Amino acid sequence: MADVEAKAKEAARKQYWLPLESNPEVLNEFAAKIGAEPTFAFHDVFGLDPELLAMVPQPVVAVTLLFPSDEMRPAKEAQLRALEEKGYAPDLSVFFMRQYVGNACGTIAAVHALGNNPFVVGSGSPLAAFLAENAQASPAERGASLASAEFVRAATSQSAQQGQTATPGLGDEVNHHFITFVSKDGRCLELDGTKPYPIDHGPVEGDDLLTAAAGVIKREFIDKVPDGTFNVMALATNMDDHGNEDRPTIIKQIHPDQASSTSR
Question: Would you call 176 a catalytic residue per the annotation?
Fold first, then answer.
């Protein structure tokens, strides 16, 4: 696996994709292009307090987080060191891939959200085929496969240009990073393609992934960088698809004026 990872890193060293904006419309367009069913959609999460979380359509099957990567780097590095010192054994049964393409973290966050909820993926779609082909692959092999998946790159490029802010150029540095939280066997798992493995943040009580993820985001991210800009979205029931478009959606935004930050 080390050889696969080394080759993937070398092949992708100069490869960059356009970063996806942290915006439900952008992620929903991307998801539709690669084969997601319309019954679920990404929604903004406007706050992490219980009354705001209660506005989110249920069930929530994945939560994405955009955070300031440079400011969070010391805390995330310390987290990995602590896990390794404890002999942490990650759950590799979840669909998890490494990131080898620059600025593709939003793409990978969306694929992590969809790929761990196969009922959201259309049968016979390009994404369904990709997931099937990589079902038994290692995280490194999946990352290498994604880096060469033209349908994912094309969907990313087309969707990235539909955001509310100016699209960065290929290779431009952006100081935000996307990750995803999913529930696996009753555990809240953090999926970050720049990390070597999924990170287990503890139990999901009562199948309430949104509340579990909100607690992790407060404790492990916002408390570490209280002045940072964060954006949260949830993959949940699409109320529009159910003819209930007036219902509020869920999203947590610390600084609404910077909600449309792009990812790396």
Answer: no
